[in-house]
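re: that chain from earlier
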Amino acid sequence: MSPFVRRRLPDARIIPNGTFFALMAAVVAILVLEGCGIVPTSTESTASSPSQSLVLPRVPATQPPSASPVAISVSRSTGINLVGWAPDGRHLLLDSGALEVIDAQGRTVATPGGTVATWIDTTRFATWTPGNAGAVAGTVMVVGLDGSTIPVPGTYVGGGLIGDGVGDLTLMPLGSGSSIVADHFVIWSNGRLGDPMPGWPLGWSRDGSTLIIATSSPLGGTAGSTSSVSVALMTRPFLVQARPIANVHVDPNYVPAFDLAGSHVAFPCAAIGTLGACHQLVDDLSTATIHDIAVQAPGLPVTWTSDGALLLAADPASGSGVLREWNGSAVVASSLPKASWALASPSGYVALVTEATDSTHTTRIINSIGVSVAELAGMALSWSQDGSAVAIKVDSGLQLTLFRIP
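^ sequence. v structure.
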């Protein structure tokens, strides 16, 4: 299974390796937690509802710093799995049998306990601990890098734990009666819980201005199946009015990807109408226009470059190694060096991953003017949100390389 898919620990993005869809499986007993026709298209469908989303200017690529990058090795006796970067890139949540926080030098600074975690902001994260082994219900603790802890009142489903990186946290209280699966969420902000809102949170924009929610129950969601969810957008300042993304259904196990400006969001596995084969869809939030990209398998990453293009994997059927980009109107060949797939950084750097076999990978780092700065063993998993570092998992699974850009 691809590391770019939501899953139980190991390997995930900002919510650690496990989603509330998996956590609710023990109750409903039907949750199925990665194909795809790889045929680039440029068809469009326009949503009927006007956009209420915040539109920000595109962020230009930055030039690389002059100081030399640094590679730091982190090793453990059991498999290391990335949970998530702090927004400023100075700390990283890991799981190697237990949750831990490491700093920029790879030193362990906290072992908070719990099985699920997410960053709230640069200095605080939240953990979820099940009531007992295999339990769906659990408790949430807000933990500070200064050692402070704040228990959140109530009992929650672990997978609803999603921090926005700027101070807020979504939580899904456990349901009751005939509907014990959570069907609403609340937002925790600086010690206060907001009013319940219907839906299932799926992901925040980078600046916390927009929240994507599922408006139908996220049961199932196996890639390429008909189990899918309808989705909507909630925007600041109040996050009370959801704008449906009309006639779009997504597989909730794939994390939506917002561009740097917050003006577009890409869904790695979705479809217009009923979800069948996975397509990549892009929602232009300023016009409520849906673009059907449909070019790659859903388990491969989709990331936005610093100049606003959606970076896509090479076509494995062709064997050419030529990466592709969606430029706002069509999918075109990328000018980047050849690779199997790539992860773009907000600062203009790109991690190019070459897959020799399923278990053999090499990551090459290039700067914003295309100059190679390093070649490292393993597969790049995630850039920090500020673009200052990338985590690379060595193929043995027992070592993580933190490649830092000064």
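The chain has two helices and 33 strands.
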